[in-house]
Amino acid sequence: MAQKQPNISVDVAVIGGGTAGLAAYRAAKQHSESVLLIEGGEFGTTCARVGCMPSKLLIAAAENAHQYHHSAQFGVNLGKPKIDGKAVMQRVRSERDRFVGFVLESVDSIPSSEKLKGHASFIDNNTLQVGDSIVNAKRIVIATGSRPAFPAAWQSLGSRLVVNDDVFSWEELPSSVAVFGPGVIGLELGQALSRLGVEIKVFGVGGQVGPLSDPTVMNAAKEAFQADFYLDADAKVEAIELDNDQVRISFTDLDGEPQHQHFDYLLAATGRRANVDRLGLDKLSIELDERGVPVVDHFTMQSSVDNIFVAGDANNLIPLLHEAADQGKIAGDNAGRGKDLRAGLRRSSIAAVFTDPQIAMVGESYKQIETRLGSCGCFEIGTVSFENQGRSRVMLVNKGRAHLYGEQGTGRFLGAEIVGPNAEHLAHLLAWAHQQQMTVSQMLDMPFYHPVIEEGLRTALRELNAKLHLGPEMIDACMECGVGA
């Protein structure tokens, strides 16, 4: 690492060595050799260390156990699987470390003179305090990521309170976990742990399930998950306290009965907070939103201070790896240019939750469309239930439904919310169509094989097209086989 110096002057300083920061560094280097990457913690990405990759490792183990356990539905009697918790977590940690190693190899290739360890804090628009060093930069990229957020009162639980970061360091699976927050992290980890034999209860507030905003799709998700594990999306929790090194929770259950239950851990999955509160932003005349996060231009990543750019989880626009990488590239490119800012490529929104059934969202959400077009009745919804969808039923994954949204007049595809099998793959097809600004009719002209789960999209598109008063009337079922219209 670079030796601490009293003063360092560079063209571009990037604060944060995660996904967005590394992308920003690489992009800035295309324009200037004078770029400094600053990191206060460990280099490496949230995705590799404690996010998408280790969680998928845990989910993969859970899916394997679930398929084994439910094989009897196909007439294949394998019995109840034996879960070796130590072996499960050993593989999670080993593969996690392997993924992190790939990221660190990339970081190690950066010259030591261009890396600085330490927490950065603004002195003014162009000056940072980093440990004993003063860094003067013509332009600065903030890519400091985010961290789990939870009520301060939970700190009294001590080591019995965990966040997703902690789960992937476990050497053994616990007996019981109370998960607070049925969002992306809570649903993924809660279901995975449940399928690996851990007693799980997932508690939420206000009825929200995952990132969904369409009430019908959200209700389908809730029903599917409640059939698999305990989920109360609008829980009435009276007390949470530490009792004999366990977490004692007093709550009213789904049947309206008072319960008092002990858990090994409380897993806080109640959201994340952008890591900008310790940067000394109060010393700048920078515009902040109601959460204290810098407001940025969606296309250039520039803040209200001309020489400061913000990318990734630090701006809290869309906290996803592919989005952080895109934003980092745009921010770094513009910081490297200095002048003549360029609008970066903003891809169609796509998000997935790797539960069973999966959740996916593409383009505009139902809430966004309803806000924009609801008052004039300018959009329609096409729907498909996967309960009787041909291939889904063959595979016994026939749960959930999808809503696709189209604009009246233009026939343009606006977005989708899905809970169902292979939703991650369905979402990619829809995202490509959305980015190409295709109409519903054009999407129906695309090929669909039979029998595949993707035919469910065609069912929804046909209904949507009929509601938009475009093309032929809706076909109820395939004349050849009765399913997969």
UniProtKB/TrEMBL annotation:
One of its GO terms (molecular function) is dihydrolipoyl dehydrogenase (NADH) activity. This is Dihydrolipoyl dehydrogenase. InterPro entries: FAD/NAD-bd_sf, FAD/NAD-binding_dom, FAD/NAD-linked_Rdtase_dimer_sf, Pyr_nuc-diS_OxRdtase, Pyr_nucl-diS_OxRdtase_dimer. NAD(+) binds at G181, P182, G183, V184, I185, G186, L187, E188, G271. Transmembrane segments: none annotated. Keywords: FAD, Flavoprotein, NAD, Nucleotide-binding, Oxidoreductase. The keyword Oxidoreductase applies. Disulfide bonds join C47-C52. The active site is at H450. Pfam families: Pyr_redox_2 (PF07992), Pyr_redox_dim (PF02852). The lineage of its organism: Bacteria, Pseudomonadati, Pseudomonadota, Gammaproteobacteria, Alteromonadales. Belongs to the class-I pyridine nucleotide-disulfide oxidoreductase family. Residues 11-328 form the FAD/NAD(P)-binding domain. Its EC number is 1.8.1.4. FAD binds at K56, T144, G145, S146, D313. Residues 351-460 form the Pyridine nucleotide-disulphide oxidoreductase dimerisation domain. Its cofactor is FAD. Binds 1 FAD per subunit. Gene3D superfamilies: 3.30.390.30, FAD/NAD(P)-binding domain (3.50.50.60).
